[in-house]
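Here is a typical sample entry:
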Amino acid sequence: MVKTKQTFTLRTAVQLVLVVFVVPFLPMIISGQWAWWEAWAYALASTVGFIVSRVLAARRHPDILEERARSMQLQDAKAWDRILAPSLAFGIILVLVVAGMDRLFDWSMPFALPVKVLALVVIVFGYALGSWALIENRFFSGVVRIQRDRGHQVVSTGPYRLIRHPGYAGALWVYLATPLLLDSIWAFVPVSVLIGVLVVRTSLEDKTLQEELPGYKEFTARTRYRLIPGIW
């Protein structure tokens, strides 16, 4: 009970409200267009994916939400990730803001319906992949750190049999498909920067794990690719 009180602070509650009830709806909030079905589809996929993944992960690993809630306050988080982790969070907000402004000012021509349907499928796939990684991996922290206090060890089951960083891979697909679903060519500008940050973070985290986590180098020999099978 004490741990729950320490973890669920006012700051955590505010962040939860923003992530679940504000950020996914930014395109509609900014554009003022609440009959925008593509934006509703994105918001529902994001919100449902977040809630379901956390509930299932907490059922399997009761301490994982505490780890993620306090991650930015932990002293052993890598210094470079104190910059990169928030950058990814603010990056997706910027993508949604640009998409909302694009809709408001009618900057981009709409994509064909089949393109948007495919984009929605990719977004759902991306959230499903990231959720699977979170549920499978007890050490899926919000920052890069070696969790010696939690008995950190290599996880090689589930999606980790296919790629070494399935959580990042899921996010990558969501980033790429979001501008297509929301009819925003201009949203690809922040998306390109966001993907660059994601690739850098993936590379640095992989290097850290190889150097500091026992058994991870052997894991890389079995699971060769970081984000996309056959490519990288």
The chain has one domain: 2-222.
